[in-house]
Amino acid sequence: MSNRAVLEVIALDAEDAVAARAGGADRLELVTDMAADGLTPPLEVFESIRSAVDIPLRVMLRVADGFAAGDIGVLVEKARTLRAAGAEEFVLGFLDQDGHADLVAVERLVAELDGCPWTFHRAIDRAADREVLRKHLADLPGLDTYLTAGSPSGVDAGMDTLLDEAARAELPGYEPQIMVGGGLRLDHLPRLRAAGIEAFHIGGAARPGGWSGPVDTAAVREWRAALDG
DSSP 3-state assignment of 217? Predict the structure, then answer.
């Protein structure tokens, strides 16, 4: 069995997707509107990316900035439309006003996904209690990944939390894979890999020119080489 670490790259369009795939990305997170930290992309963007690359795509289900679900009916309709178009993996995560998992919203949306694998994104980093959130979500079908920096401030601040959670991998609620993202740098990788973390997520790090420019194949390749080394 391969021990190759998973490298996930944010893609906004087919050009990004092709560049990320060429650089060695294993999976893409599809979003639009990074000014709002990533919302659900239009259907035609999903379809163009699906036609352009053959690697797994995780599609964001989020319709407003922040971690409140907003109009759950709109989210459900978007999920239904994407599923009908062939989407098979998703990213989502909602908190209520007290910072707890919004189970009503999450469970309704997960029911629409009908067993598809999904990531609970960095809403966990804003949760009132990470451990309680994990326990509340533990039995939901399809949840296989937490995208987290360990802290709302990024990996520098969250490193100890990430290492602690990696050490709990066999405990109830900690079985989903930790995918580290949010202020992640190449110099973080040795400690994270030594702790057994095997999944990493990059957005801005794949775009030396900033979010106004495309994914850079060479930048992704540098991350791929670091992980493989």
Answer: helix
C-alpha torsion 113→42→15→22, nearest 10: 0
* Of the candidates 72, 69, 10, the residue with the CA atom closest to the CA atom of residue 41: 10
The DSSP line for 113-151 is HTT--EEE-GGGGG-S-HHHHHHHHTT-TTEEEEEE-SS
Residue located via tokens 């702790």: 195
Per-residue tokens: 56 = 């797994």
Reading the block at residue 59, the tokens are: 């599609």
> In a 3-state reduction of DSSP, which class is residue 84?
helix
Is the torsion defined by CA of 61, 165, 100, 115 positive or negative? positive
Q: How many CB atoms lie within 10 A of CB 133?
A: 23
In this structure, the number of other CB atoms found within 10 A of the CB of residue 55 comes to 14
The SS3 assignment for 32 reads strand
Q: Which amino acid is at 56?
A: P
Pairing of strands 89-92, 6-11: unpaired
Q: Give residue-wise pLDDT tens across range 26-58.
A: 999 999 999 889 999 999 999 999 999 999 999
pTM, to two decimals: 0.96
Which residues on adjacent β-strands are paired with residue 90? Answer: 59, 118
DSSP assigned state of 170: T
Q: Which helix (H) or strand (E) holds 75?
A: helix 72-84
Q: CA-CA distance, 56 to 210, in Å (whole number)?
A: 24
